[in-house]
Amino acid sequence: MPKKKTGARKKAENRREREKQLRASRSTIDLAKHPCNASMECDKCQRRQKNRAFCYFCNSVQKLPICAQCGKTKCMMKSSDCVIKHAGVYSTGLAMVGAICDFCEAWVCHGRKCLSTHACACPLTDAECVECERGVWDH
């Protein structure tokens, strides 16, 4: 008869199983669940669209940007890896923007990780338009 498992051993095995499932599911994440494809509403024309820097319909700039990599709308200095120093001040709006992605045209915050990884990990790097069957650089 096998030995009875202790509580610590059960927890460790469960944790290992969860981590294995997380690693397996990272590569198969749904395109709609990425922060760069979050739903937003334009401030001027009130139409819903994907998270983009400029409105598709009226070309206005989005007032409250959402980071395309991490999904943040506010940068809190203590809990992030900011490239910009803003001691004691929460930066929101265009103050937290570091770049615009070439592929998905969404804002990227000034966090070191977001700036360095989003251009490589953007889910739309090799995307093609459903209607005209062209890639990003063909437009």
Order of strands, main sheet, comes to 1-2
Radius of gyration over C-alpha positions, nearest whole angstrom? 20 Å
Number of helices: 2
Number of strands: 6
β-strand amount: 5-15%
Range of helix content:
10-25%
Largest sheet: 2 strands, antiparallel
Overall residue-averaged pLDDT value:
82
Order of helices and strands: HEEEEEEH
Low-confidence stretches: none
End-to-end C-alpha gap:
67 Å
Protein name: Zinc finger protein 330
Family: Belongs to the NOA36 family.
Region (Disordered): 1-23
Organism: Homo sapiens (Human)
Plain-language structure description:
With about 140 residues, the chain is of the alpha+beta class. It has a domain at about 30-120. It is built from two helices and six strands, in the order αββββββα. It has a two-stranded antiparallel sheet. The radius of gyration is 20 Å and the shape is extended. GO terms for molecular function: zinc ion binding. Pfam families: NOA36. Belongs to the NOA36 family. This is Zinc finger protein 330.
